[in-house]
Design a protein that fits this description.
The complex is a heterodimer of chains A (about 250) and B (about 550). In chain A, about 40% of the residues lie in helices and about 25% in strands. In chain A, the strands form 2 sheets. Chain A has a 6-stranded mixed β-sheet, sandwiched between helices. Chain A has a 4-stranded antiparallel β-sheet with strand order 2-1-4-5. In chain A, α3 packs across α4 and α3 runs parallel beside α5. In chain B, α12 packs antiparallel against α13. The longest helix of chain B is centred in the first third of the chain and has 35 residues. In chain B, about 40% of the residues are buried. The chains are: A alpha/beta (about 250), B mainly alpha (about 550). At the A-B interface, α1, α2 and α3 of A face α11 and α14 of B.
Chain lengths: ~250, ~550
C-alpha cells in the first residue's frame, strides 16, 4: 500500500530524514517510534505530500505522490498531532467539508457523519461550534474528519494525545477494526504500550535514520528477549535514564 | 524579572515571528524598505512643495502650517483609534501567553507594563509612517532647528501613551462583564465610529479647485477649519495638545510650547501609572477572568446551501466553507468591509459640502467610489482567504485539489465576498446619484471588474506573504506585505482623487460623462484577465508550498 524508497529530507546541513526505505502492506498497523526530534513527523509529512523529499520517492496504492498527487492523496487520511480545525464550523459542517473535499457524495457524507459522531460520542455536539469543544473532543472531530472519506491509508501523528482513557480505548478498537477491513494505518507514538499492543510492525527512528524495523517478535528475537522499551532505549541511547538521578542531584 | 528584560523577550519573540520564513529573502526586505522610504520621501516632498508654494504666494498664510500640524496629529489619533483599539485589547486582555505569565512570580505590573510598551511600539510605527512626512515638511518649510524635532519626539511618545492607557481603563470593566467575542466586536465598532467621526472633519473642506475664487474660498474654509481645532471639544483631544505645542514652538514661543508639552506628558504619565496599576490589581484579585471561555451555542447551518448548486461541484466545499467562516467571524468580516465602507463614504461627504461642483462631478465621483471600494474589499478578501486557513491549511495541501484550482476558487470566493459592495454601489448609483438602471448596471459591471482585479492581486499577495500563525486578522500577512497593500490602496485612492480633479480642470466630456457599456465591458474583461493572472501566479506559489508548521 505504501512504499518509500530512499526518502530523504534535508534542511540546509541538517539531515532530518536519511534515506528511509519502507514497505507497508495493506491492512497493517505500522508504528513509527523514536525519541523527540527523530524525524517521525517529518517522515509522515513526506509520505502525505505536505513536504517534498530532497531525494527519494513515495508511492501510495501504486500512485507516485509527486507525479500523480491527486490520485495518491485521494487514498490518504491524515490526523496531525494537534487538532487544528476551523473553529467557526460545527463538527457536522466540518465533516461535510472534509468529505466533499475528497469528492464524497452528500448523502453518503450524511450517513457517515452520523455514524462517526456516534462512535466518538459526539452526538449531542454536532451542531455546536468547534471553538466551544474541549481539546479531546476536537481531537475526536479531527479523527472523524480524516475517516469520513474512508481512506485506504491513514496516517496518525501521536493519535492518543489529548484523548481520555475511554477515547483512547475507542481509538485503539477502531484502528484494529479498520485494519481488519484492509485499511493501512501508519502511526507515530511515544507510548510504547500502544505500539506493543496495537502495531503489526514497528520502525525505530533516531536522528532521521531507520534503526530497525519488523514485527514485535522479530525485534525481540533480534535483540535477545528484551521488551520493546528496553529495545527502544538500547537503540536510541538508554544510558540517559541511569544518568538522570546524577543530573538531578547535581 | 524586570520590565525591560520581559519587554526584551517579547520583542525578541515578535522579531523572530517577523523574520521567520523570510530569512533567505534579503532582496525582498531591501525592496520593501526602499518602497517604504520612497513613500515617506514622496509624501513629505509633496506636502513640502505644496506648503512652500502656498507660503511663497501668500506669505501671511502661515495658518496653513498650523492646519497641517493639527490635521496630521488628528489623523494619527484617528488611525490609532481605528486600527489599534481592537489590537490593543487583544494584546492586553486576550493574549494567549497572559495566563502563563500571570502564573509566574513576575509582578503583574511588569507584565502589563511590557504589554503597554508593545502597544505603544505598534502605534509608534503606524504614526511615524503617517504623521512624520507632514511634520518634517512643516519643519523644513519653516526652517526650524533640531529642538523642534526633539519636541516632536517627546510629544509623539506622550501622545501615544494616552490612547493605550485609555484602552486599558475602558477594557478592565468590559473584560469582566462582556464576553470576549462581543468585546472585540464592541471595540471594533467603537473604534470605527470614532475614527470615522475624526476622519470626516477634514472632509468638510472642498477638495476641488476650479478657479482663483474657489482657491480663496478654500483658504477661508481652511481658516474656518482651524477654528474647529480651537473648539471646546477639540481641546480635549491629545492630538490638539501635541499639535498646539508644536505650533507654539514653530512661532518661537518656547515657554508656551513646553508648558503644553508638560501638560501632555503629565496626563500621559498619570494615565499610564493608573491604568497599569488598576489592570494589575484587577488581574491579581481575580476581578478579570484570565481564561476566555468560548460561547457554547448551537448554530443553524445549511440554510443557503441550495445556492451552491449554481457553481461547479469542485468549488462548493471551499466556497461554502469560506463564506460561512467569514460570515460567522466578526473579526474577519470587520477587517474585510470596514475600509471599503470608509471609502464609500468619502465621495458622499465631499458631495454634501459643495453642491455646484458635486453636480458636475457626480458621475465620476460615484465611479471612483465604486472602483475604490471594490478594489479595496476585493484585495482584502483575496489577501485573507489563504492565510485564513491558519494552522488547518495543511488540510488543503494534503487534499486531492490541484493548486491551480485552489487558487482560482479562492480568487472567485474573494470576488463573491466583494459582491455586496458591488451590488450596493449599483443601488447607491441609482438612489443617491439619481442614475438610471442602465447606468447603475454599467457602473456595477465596472465595479465587478475592479473587484476581480483586486481579488486576484489580493490572492497572490495572501499566498506570497501568508502568516498561517496569525492571532489577529491584521497579522494574516507579513508586516512588509501590509505596507505594500497599504501603498496600493493609497495609490488607488490618490489616483481617484487626481482623476476627479483632472475631470473638473479639463471639463472633458469623457471624464465627466458616464462611461458607455462598451467601456464597462472592457474594464470587466481587463479586470478579469489581470485578476486571473494573479490567481494563476498564486497557484504556482501554492504548488511550491510546503507545510513546516506543527
Amino acid at each position: 500500500m505504501l512504499r518509500a524508497q530512499g526518502l530523504t529530507r534535508r534542511y540546509g546541513s541538517l539531515l532530518a530524514v536519511d534515506h528511509l526505505d519502507l514497505h507497508i502492506a495493506p491492512g497493517q498497523i505500522f508504528g513509527l517510534l523514536g525519541p523527540n526530534g527523530a524525524g517521525k513527523t517529518t517522515t509522515i509529512k513526506l509520505m502525505t505530500g505536505l513536504l517534498r523529499p530532497s531525494e527519494g520517492s513515495v508511492q501510495v496504492g501504486g500512485h507516485d505522490l509527486e507525479k500523480e498527487p491527486s490520485a495518491a492523496r485521494r487514498l490518504i487520511g491524515y490526523v496531525a498531532d494537534e487538532p487544528h480545525l476551523y473553529e467557526k464550523l460545527t463538527p457536522v459542517e466540518f465533516l461535510r467539508f472534509s468529505g466533499e473535499l475528497y469528492g464524497v457524495a452528500a448523502d453518503t457524507i450524511r450517513g457517515r457523519t452520523q455514524r462517526l459522531l456516534h462512535l466518538f460520542e459526539l452526538d449531542g455536539r454536532g451542531d455546536f461550534l468547534i471553538e466551544s469543544l474541549s481539546h479531546g473532543m476536537k481531537q475526536k472531530v479531527a479523527l472523524a474528519g480524516a475517516l469520513v472519506h474512508e481512506p485506504r491509508l491513514l496516517f496518525l501523528d501521536e493519535p492518543t494525545v489529548g484523548l481520555d482513557p475511554r477515547g483512547a480505548r475507542t481509538l485503539k478498537l477502531l484502528l484494529r477494526h479498520l485494519a481488519g477491513r484492509g485499511i493501512t494505518i501508519v502511526l507515530s507514538t511515544h507510548i510504547l504500550e500502544i505500539a506493543e499492543r496495537l502495531c503489526d510492525r514497528v520502525a525505530i527512528l533516531a536522528k532521521g535514520k531507520l534503526l530497525a524495523t519488523g514485527t514485535m517478535a522479530e525485534l525481540t528475537e533480534r535483540m535477545g528477549e528484551m521488551s520493546l522499551e528496553e529495545i527502544f532505549l538500547e537503540m536510541t541511547g538508554g544510558n540517559d535514564v541511569t544518568d538522570l538521578s546524577e543530573a538531578l542531584d547535581g | 524579572m524586570t520590565l525591560l528584560s520581559l519587554l526584551g523577550w517579547q520583542l525578541k519573540i515578535a522579531w523572530a515571528g517577523m523574520v521567520r520564513g523570510r530569512r533567505a529573502r534579503v532582496g525582498q526586505r531591501i525592496l520593501l524598505t526602499t518602497v517604504g522610504l520612497f513613500w515617506l520621501a514622496m509624501l513629505g516632498a509633496v506636502i513640502y512643495l505644496a506648503l512652500g508654494e502656498a507660503i511663497r504666494r501668500t506669505p501671511e498664510a502661515t495658518w496653513l502650517l498650523d492646519l497641517t500640524l493639527y490635521s496630521a496629529w488628528l489623523g494619527a489619533l484617528a488611525m490609532v483609534i481605528f486600527f489599534n483599539l481592537g489590537f490593543l485589547l487583544h494584546v492586553v486582555f486576550f493574549s494567549r501567553d497572559l495566563e502563563f505569565l500571570m502564573a509566574t512570580p513576575v509582578d503583574p505590573r511588569v507584565v502589563l507594563g511590557s504589554r503597554f510598551a508593545v502597544g505603544m511600539w505598534s502605534n509608534l510605527l503606524l504614526n511615524l509612517f503617517l504623521s512624520m512626512p507632514a511634520v518634517i515638511a512643516v519643519g523644513a518649510v519653516s526652517k526650524v532647528g533640531p529642538a523642534w524635532y526633539a519636541l516632536f519626539a517627546v510629544a509623539q511618545i506622550s501622545f501615544l501613551a494616552i490612547p493605550v492607557a485609555l484602552t486599558y481603563l475602558i477594557g478592565i470593566p468590559l473584560a469582566r462583564w462582556v464576553s470576549t467575542q462581543r468585546l472585540r466586536a464592541l471595540f471594533s465598532i467603537l473604534g470605527f465610529g470614532l475614527a470615522l467621526f475624526l476622519w470626516s472633519l477634514p472632509q468638510l473642506a472642498p477638495s476641488r479647485i476650479r478657479s482663483a475664487a474657489e482657491l480663496d474660498r478654500l483658504m477661508n474654509h481652511g481658516i474656518d477649519l482651524l477654528r474647529v481645532f480651537q473648539s471646546p471639544a477639540a481641546l480635549l483631544w491629545p492630538s490638539t495638545w501635541a499639535a498646539a505645542a508644536q505650533v507654539e514652538a514653530l512661532r518661537g514661543h518656547w515657554g508656551a510650547a513646553l508648558s503644553r508639552l508638560l501638560v501632555l506628558a503629565g496626563v500621559a504619565a498619570l494615565l499610564v501609572a493608573v491604568s497599569i496599576r488598576l489592570a494589575a490589581h484587577s488581574y491579581r484579585d481575580g476581578w478579570i477572568r484570565l481564561a476566555s471561555v468560548a460561547t457554547s451555542r448551537q448554530v443553524r447551518s445549511e440554510r443557503f446551501t441550495f445556492l451552491l448548486n449554481l457553481v461547479p461541484r469542485d468549488w462548493r466545499p471551499l466556497l461554502w466553507k469560506d463564506l460561512t467562516i467569514v460570515a460567522r467571524d466578526f473579526r474577519l468580516s470587520f477587517q474585510l468591509y470596514s475600509l471599503g465602507i470608509l471609502m464609500c463614504l468619502f465621495p458622499f461627504m465631499t458631495l454634501a459640502t459643495s453642491s455646484s461642483e458635486g453636480a458636475v462631478m457626480a458621475p465620476l465621483t460615484a465611479l471612483s467610489c465604486a472602483l475604490g471600494a471594490a478594489v479595496v474589499v476585493g484585495s482584502q478578501a483575496g489577501i485573507m482567504l489563504i492565510p485564513m486557513e491558519g494552522r488547518s491549511a495543511w488540510r488543503l495541501l494534503a487534499a486531492p485539489v490541484s493548486p491551480q484550482n485552489l487558487a482560482v476558487i479562492k480568487w472567485l470566493t474573494a470576488t463573491c465576498l466583494t459582491l455586496p459592495v458591488v451590488v450596493g454601489q449599483a443601488v447607491l448609483l441609482m438612489l443617491a446619484f439619481h442614475r438610471s438602471f442602465h447606468e447603475a448596471f454599467t457602473g456595477g459591471l465596472i465595479a465587478l471588474g475592479a473587484a476581480l482585479l483586486g481579488a486576484g492581486f489580493g490572492t497572490w499577495t495572501g499566498v506570497s506573504f501568508a502568516n498561517f500563525e496569525w492571532d489577529h486578522p491584521r497579522r494574516m500577512i507579513s508586516p512588509g506585505a501590509q505596507i505594500i497593500w497599504g501603498l496600493g490602496v493609497g495609490l488607488i485612492t490618490g489616483g481617484m482623487v487626481f482623476l476627479s480633479q483632472a475631470a473638473v480642470w479639463s471639463s472633458s466630456p469623457l471624464l465627466t460623462g458616464f462611461p458607455s457599456p462598451g467601456v464597462a465591458l472592457l474594464v470587466l474583461l481587463v479586470g478579469t484577465g489581470i485578476g486571473a493572472l494573479g490567481a494563476l501566479r498564486a497557484g504556482h506559489k501554492i504548488a511550491r508550498m510546503e507545510w513546516e508548521a506543527g
